[in-house]
Each structure stands twice: as C-alpha cells, then as structure tokens.
Amino acid sequence: MQKPSDDDQRLNVLGKALAVLETVADHPQGIGLPDLATRLGLPRQTVHRVLGQLEAAGLLLRDPVRERFSVGPRLTRLSLAALSSNNQWAPVRSVLRDLVDDVGETCNIGVLEGLDYIYIERIECEWPLRIHLEVGNRSPAHCLSGGKVLLAALEPKLRARLLKSRKLVARTPRSITRIPDL
Description:
The protein is of the alpha+beta class and 182 residues long. The chain folds into two domains: 66 residues, Winged helix-like DNA-binding domain superfamily/Winged helix DNA-binding domain (Arc Repressor Mutant, subunit A); 81 residues, Beta-Lactamase (2-Layer Sandwich), CATH 3.30.450.40. The protein is 49% helix and 15% strand. It has a three-stranded antiparallel sheet with strand order 1-3-2. Helix 1 packs across helix 3 and helix 2 crosses helix 3.
C-alpha cells in the first residue's frame, strides 16, 4: 500500500473541514458534535479538532450553553463576498433590472441569518427620494416584506425558536412587534 503524500493529506483535511462547514450550514438551528460526527461518518475526535480550528478562525460559532455549532461571522462575510461578486449574478441582475423597470420600485434579493434579512442583490428605482442600502446591509426580517416571506417559509419549530430568541423592535409605527400578529 502506498503512503499518502502531503498533498493528499492536506486535501483530506480540507475535505473534512468543508464537509463540516457544509453540514453546519445545513442546520440553521446549530448542530452538536455527536450528531455532526454521525452525519459525516467521522471519528468524534477528528470532528472535534476540525470544529476547534474552524471556531478559532471565526468560521463557526459555538453556543456554550447548548454545545451546538452554527455559522460564524467570518463565514458569513465570505459568503456575502462570494454572493456579491458580479460574475455569477449577471442573469439575476438582468431579471431584477427588468422587474424594477416594470414596477417602478426598488427590488431586492435577500437571505435570512437568524432574524436578520441580508441584502445579497439590489437594484434601486429612479425615484429621487429613496432609501439607499447596499449589498450586505442587514435589517430586521420582521420589518421587511422579503424577510416576512422568508420567515413564513421556515419550518414552524425553527421559526418559533428564532422569533422567541430576541425582542421584535419596531422600526416604524406600523412594524409588527408581537409574534402572534406576525
């Protein structure tokens, strides 16, 4: 049997780290070490080591109370940078531009991170008075139509946990701040 080269070893380490990141990203409520090791079919010690390295790098966050891991701030920034690169968004921008031309209003595409709506693409209308927001800006999801749509599409138990995790603050006199109303 041939001994793996250093390049093969690095690739294996990278492959494990990517597998951990992908699995954690697939669990917005977070995932614990035992479940993660089981899902990946890797030894707990290996997953523990990879989790520690990814947490130290800011790619993952550990909830010390529940011992669960979730996407960290650095991974979010990397994701937003990748999403905002214009190469992959040319067709989306074209559709958004057509939509803005048709309806005469600003159009956005966003994603949820917890209870925040993050703008990943945005084309503004030509109105002289408008709110200028950039890709990467965050707003409370419960205050935006796009955020409400994404919240409505979540699994009910996850949505309930998210909504109970922080107070819904009003941004305007018409902001919905009561969970039953939302």
